[in-house]
Design brief:
The protein is an alpha/beta fold and 619 residues long. It is 36% helix and 24% strand. It is built from 20 helices and 28 strands. It has a 9-stranded antiparallel β-sheet, covered by helices on one side. β19, α9 and β20 form a beta-alpha-beta unit. The chain is globular and about 75 Å long. The structure holds fructose -6-phosphate. Fructose -6-phosphate (F6R) binds next to α9 and α17.
């Protein structure tokens, strides 16, 4: 959601800012803009609605904007329609009708997040003579900084601190003050932002891929902290205006992993990166000297209840993990959507554990759920992909997935890495609880390590799914059904299809279908049955036959050996055999491929589906 970049150094800023923004395009946006300063001169602002390429053309690839200090933004509209006027940067004075040109303003800035009390602040500023040209909450916050800056004739430190105390909501803010050339000021609360320093120059970004090309050593600005960024140096402050010392964090991701590397889309590239994501994650957890999950066995052995809280696909991982943990460890698991959990007054047992799953580590609802669990005094474990993200830093314990940067909006490799991270946790818990022996654990770990090669085998046969997708790309509806663990995988398969191909699809527990939804099954309706669980196989087959007798076209997804599927299904897909607890890691792959190829067949923007953003940092 929205992207922020900043640069202050010795080279021209605009081309660097544009390149950074292009690395953040995957997050979703509807307009973009830059503000660049040349020494003491006023900032020059250029904005464009739509694709970043329009901004690129408007500025001749950045060459037309002279100056070595600048900020840039891709906007995903929240307050006010997508338009040039509402696009960032915003200014404390009046914006030209075109939104572009040199600005006289004292303060110029960009913002990610949402200012909840913007209306109240706007009313206050109106009374003090400010006029507003846009519908955005960002313009309000920029003008509020200006108000404090001028009213008390104080420097940026106090003006920013006062503003931060006054605004409610979430923000990552970048500001340039007219009287402070060569400086970019940044502030953050609940919205990600990092700063990298290299070779006497400084880079700012809301997300790692934007600056990977220049540096992998970054500073994370803490919540409710702000900073002054100058060429090659940064000074951090807390709300009292006192300096805060910080160390850099090294990002292992390399720049190539954030490029397409010859693939047509990031989504298919990331589907192919799943064997590596799974292997790297497992190898980081299962080491020579033990299972690297920081929760002590003494805590785990007395654990009575687990709550898994997440959003979207990460929530689906929780649904799948619920079956594995309950079966292997005999511990109750509740899986909650973070957006619901955060506003419910769920009594949480003291000897329970809340697991937050999040690829980005910045999802607003998941972060709020984590804080709620902590407030209630319950121990929290975060399963996160992005090192140093808010959720990773705030949780009591963190288990990192090693999927590398995930660029496609639709998650694939991060989801697969999360699945095995939770499976690994289940093994550690089962050992602590004594519900499995060391020998059984070893057997299960060997099975987990067989996943990467088995995913490779599924990918070798992707041509069949591609063919199937091209045949069915005109459908309007699809139903994914399964029982038990297969139901959790059906949920993910259905989400993958709908988000990238815009085909309406629903996932149902196969036994639930006949309680209403079966009335939607008609001649030619596509029903995809997931049938990997031995004990539930016959039951799901019966449900598929019920659909078939009402005219449905049946795709059966099962494991090698269950060839009787072909008696009921019109099209069958097989995945290699593996321990039943882990087969979801294999079954999901053909479903990811199906979503991908459906989207390609329909000529859609696979990596950036409409209305979606990569990391949902607002409620
Ligand atoms: C779907 C997808 C989303 C995310 C969800 C949570 O393909 O990617 O449903 O899973 O927005 O995001 P994270 O994991 O970053 O908290």
């Amino acid at each position: 959601m929205c992207g922020i970049v900043g640069f202050v150094g010795h080279r021209q800023a605009a081309p660097i800012l544009l390149e950074g923004l292009s690395k953040l395009e995957y997050r979703g946006y509807d307009s973009a803009g830059l503000a660049v300063r040349d020494g003491e001169k006023n900032a020059e602002v250029v904005k464009a609605k739509g694709r970043l390429s329009f901004l690129y053309d408007k500025t001749d690839g950045g060459k037309a904007l002279v100056g070595s200090c600048g900020i840039g933004h891709t906007r995903w509209a929240t307050h006010g329609e997508p338009s040039v006027t509402n696009a960032h940067p915003h200014v404390s004075g009046n914006c030209r009708a075109s939104g572009s040109g040199e600005v006289e303003s004292e303060v110029v800035g960009v913002h990610n997040g949402i200012i909840e009390n913007y209306q109240e602040l706007k009313d206050k500023l109106l009374k003090h003579g400010y006029r507003f040209y846009s519908q955005t909450d960002t313009e309000v916050v920029i003008k509020l900084v200006d108000y404090y800056y001028k009213k008390y004739r104080i420097g940026p430190i106090d003006a920013i601190a006062k503003t931060m105390v006054r605004v409610r909501g979430s923000y990552a803010l970048e500001l340039m003050f007219k009287d402070h050339p060569g400086e970019i000021w940044v502030a953050r609360k609940d919205s990600p932002m990092i700063i990298g320093i290299n070779d006497g120059e400084s880079y700012i970004a809301s997300d790692v891929p934007a600056i990977l090309k220049y540096t992998r050593d970054v500073y994370y600005i803490g919540n409710l902290e702000f900073a002054k960024v100058v060429p090659g140096a940064v000074t951090f402050y807390n709300l009292d205006g006192d300096e805060v010392k910080k160390d850099t964090t090294h990002i292992e991701w390399d720049a190539e992993s954030a490029e397409k590397a010859g693939y047509e889309h990031f989504m298919i590239k990331e589907i192919h990166e799943q064997p590596k994501a799974v292997k790297d994650t497992l190898s980081s957890i299962f080491q020579e000297d033990g299972i690297k999950i920081s929760l002590p066995s003494s805590f785990l052995s007395s654990l009575s209840q687990i709550y898994i809280v997440a959003c979207g696909s990460a929530w689906h991982v929780g649904l799948k993990a619920q079956y594995t943990i309950e079966d292997l460890c005999g511990v109750n698991v509740r899986v909650e959507m973070a957006s619901e959990f955060r506003y419910r007054n769920l009594p949480l047992a003291k000897d329970s554990l809340v697991i937050i799953i999040s690829q980005s580590g910045e999802t607003a609802d998941s972060l709020a759920a984590l804080r709620k669990a902590k407030e209630k005094g319950v121990r929290t474990l975060a399963v996160v992909n992005v090192v140093g993200s808010s959720i990773a830093r705030e949780a009591d314990d963190t288990l990192y997935t090693l999927a590398g940067p995930e660029i496609s909006v639709a998650t694939t490799k991060a989801y697969s890495a999360q699945l095995v991270a939770l499976d690994s946790f289940a093994i550690k818990l089962a050992l602590a609880k004594g519900t499995i022996t060391e020998e059984k654990a070893k057997e299960l770990i060997d099975e987990l390590f067989s996943i990467p090669a088995k995913i490779e085998r599924i990918l070798e046969d992707k041509g069949r799914i591609q063919w199937f997708a091209s045949k069915f790309s005109n459908i309007h509806d699809a139903f994914f059904v399964g029982r038990g663990l297969d139901y959790a995988i059906a949920m993910e398969g259905s989400l993958k299809l709908k988000e990238v191909s815009y085909i309406h699809s629903e996932a149902y527990a196969a036994g639930e279908l006949k309680h209403g939804t079966i009335s939607l099954i008609d001649q030619g309706t596509l029903v995809i049955g997931i049938l990997t669980q031995d004990d539930l196989y016959e039951k799901t087959i019966s449900n598929l036959v019920e659909c078939k007798s009402r005219g449905a076209y049946i795709m059966g997804l099962t494991s090698c050996g269950k060839y009787s599927t072909e008696d009921s299904a019109d099209f069958s897909v097989y995945v290699p055999r593996i321990d039943q607890h882990f087969i979801g890691s294999l079954a999901v792959v053909p479903l990811q491929l199906l979503g991908y190829y459906m989207s390609v067949s329909r000529g859609l923007d696979v990596d950036k589906p409409r209305n979606l953003a990569k990391s949902v940092t607002v409620e």
